[in-house]
Amino acid sequence: MQVARPVVDLLRRPGGPRDRQLVYGDCVEILESSGDWQRVKSDKDAYEGWLPATALELAEAPTHWVCAPSTHIYAEPDIKSADRVSLSFGSRVTALVQNERFVETPLGHIPRQHLKPAGERFTDPVAVAALFLGTPYLWGGNSRCGIDCSGLVQAAMLACGHSCPGDSGDQVRAVGEALPSGTAPRRGDLLFWKGHVAWVADPETILHANAHHMATAYEPLKAAVDRIENQGDGPVTSHKRL
C-alpha cells in the first residue's frame, strides 16, 4: 500500500501521539488492523506506527518524485488553472502523460521543474536540507509543512540515495563514521547532541531544524554549541562524517 494523503501522521497507537510522518506515495507494509486503523511499517526506513486506513491506497510504481520544497497539483496543464492539492518534497508520483512543461499524474498536473525521475538523486545533502529553510519546526515532522531535526537529516540523506533511520537516536548509530573529538568540522558532517542533530554547512555554521528558531535555520556553530549546553541539553555527543 502507499500513502494517499499529502502528509499523514505515523502514530504510536490508534489516536495516539505522532512519532513521525509519511508523505504522498510513501510505501508501507500492513502489519496489523484494528477497526479503522492499520499498523504499518514504512518501506523507506522500517519505522512502524499506526495510520487511518483511509490514508492508504494500492501502491503504484512511481516514475517521479517531488524535488522542490513543495509543489502544486493543477487541474489542467496551465499555471492559471485551479490548484487541487500541494505535495511536499519527497512525494512519489506516477506519470500518465508528459509534455515540455507538465507531468500529468492521477492527481493532476505537476510542473516538470518540480520533479525528478525515479532513481535520480541529489549529491549534496546540505543543499537538500537548505531547501527547507524557513520550514516551521514540528516535532516528528517530515514535510515542508513542518519538520524536525531528524526529519531534516533523513530527507536530505534519502534524496542523495543514502539509507537513514527516522530518529536521531538511531541516526547516530547508523549514519556515517565517528570522528575523534576535536576534529575540524566540514560541510556535510553531522553533529549530534542528546536528542538533536544538525548538518555542518561550513566549518563555522550549522543548518538544523530546531525549537530555538522554531524553523529550519542556519546558526553559528560555536553559538549553537554554547546555547544548547547552557540550556541544559549538554555538549555535542558525536561528530559523524558520511
TrEMBL record:
Gene3D superfamilies: endopeptidase domain like (from Nostoc punctiforme). Keywords: Hydrolase, Protease, Thiol protease. InterPro entries: NLP_P60_dom, Papain-like_cys_pep_sf, PG_Endopeptidase_C40, SH3_16. The keyword Nucleus does not apply. Pfam families: NLPC_P60, SH3_16. Residues 119-242 form the NlpC/P60 domain. Coiled coil: none annotated. Belongs to the peptidase C40 family. This is C40 family peptidase. It comes from Lutimaribacter marinistellae. The lineage of its organism: Bacteria, Pseudomonadati, Pseudomonadota, Alphaproteobacteria, Rhodobacterales.
